[in-house]
What we know:
Blueprint: H1 6-17, E1 29-33, E2 36-40, E3 45-49, E4 52-56, E5 62-70, H2 76-86, E6 93-96, E7 99-105, E8 111-118, E9 124-132, H3 137-143, E10 145-146
Antiparallel strand pairs: 1-2, 2-10, 3-4, 4-5, 5-9, 6-7, 7-8, 8-9
Amino acid sequence: MKRIAAGKIGVFLLLAALTFTFSASAEAELQRFGNIEAYVPEGWTVQATGAQTTFMSPGNVAALSVLVNTATGVTAEEVAIAYSEAHYGTTPEEVDEGTFVFSFQNENGIESHAVVVLLADTDSYMVWVTAGAHPQLGELIESVQLVE
């Protein structure tokens, strides 16, 4: 297993979306979805479709989507621009070398925040998107790992 810069990405997502209250969740269960795994808190639902995995909180008040895909011959900035334009989002900003962020409103009009990062030593990239707020969202973000 390889830990993805989840700490750095998670911290940014937390600051960009809202300030979340971390809660200890003894009921969180480690689950695998394709090439990622995460500790899914009790009551959350998960939908894994192809390269994208979406975690929905109880009551659907918050969500985390993680997409892992290939990006042969493109930069993180090009991927971020394409995703931002597809969602009518803000202009992506580089927050760290090879890491871009932007915001957009999802189909329900909820402010969403995205992070795009190329994975080191691969032709793959990750897109993390958060929407809404829930006390367990931060711990979920921190638990996401890429598995080989």
